[in-house]
Amino acid sequence: MVSRYEHDFTHMFAGLEKQIAETDNPRHRAILKNYRLHGLLEVSGRYEELLSPTMTVEHPHYRIHEGGQSIILDGMAEVRAFYRSLVEANALVMWVAEQDIAVNDHGFSGEVVFNEFVPAPMLEGSAFGNIQAGEDPSEIYLLKRTLAFVWPYDEQCRMIGEHVYEDAASREISKPDPADVITAERAAELLAPEIDKELP
């Protein structure tokens, strides 16, 4: 059975792709293409590739503010460990529903409606939301919220880091039908053709 979310998942960058096609400035176009490929690799679990020297600076710096909590990741080791933790927690499958991106020589900023399949242990007792005590830890929830992004880039159009800010009032948590949950394996399978077109 095909998940009702698969179409939105595989077409999450449709608006961005149109923006890329309409962008004439070579630097701006390269920044947007980096962002798109970064996103595809991340949700496919291929974080080592997005952290390659051609895509990301040697010392990235992330500032993530969600649920009233702040996480600072300084340097490649901390950023790599963060992505590894998402893989281990089974919290990789995410996609944007709407996004409004402004790009300039510094990088890009924007506001996005963000969806993510999140396992129960990541929600229980966290700032992300509430689940009932005794819930099956294998249960997957759909977390939806609005995020603001600011991503700076270096002179080679490589990502310097991610600055992410959550609108906590926008957070919605629901329990999807298990048949609609996109697994990490299925996500990687769905996005592989798009990634293969971009990588050498």
Task: Outline the secondary-structure elements.
Elements: H1 6-10, H2 14-21, H3 26-43, H4 47-50, E1 61-66, E2 69-74, H5 76-88, E3 94-104, E4 107-119, H6 120-123, E5 140-152, E6 163-174, H7 184-198
Parallel strand pairs: 1-6
Antiparallel strand pairs: 1-2, 3-4, 4-5, 5-6
Per the principal axes of the C-alpha atoms, what is the gross shape? globular
The number of distinct β-strands equals: 6
| H-E string | HHHHEEHEEHEEH
Helical content band: 25-40%
Radius of gyration: 17 Å
Mean pLDDT: 91
Q: Give the number of helices.
A: 7
Report, as a whole number of angstroms, the end-to-end distance.
33 Å
Q: In order across it, which strands form the biggest sheet?
A: 2-1-6-5-4-3
Structural class: alpha+beta
Strand residues, percent: 25-35%
Task: Report on the architecture of this protein.
With 200 residues, the protein is of the alpha+beta class. It has seven helices and six strands; from the N terminus they run ααααββαββαββα. A hairpin with a 2-residue loop joins strand 1 and strand 2. Helix 2 packs antiparallel against helix 3 and helix 3 packs antiparallel against helix 7. About 4% of the residues have low confidence.
Outline of the structure:
The protein is an alpha+beta fold. It has helices at 6-10, 14-21, 26-43, 47-50, 76-88, 120-123, 184-198; strands at 61-66, 69-74, 94-104, 107-119, 140-152, 163-174. Strands 2-1-6-5-4-3 form a 6-stranded mixed β-sheet.
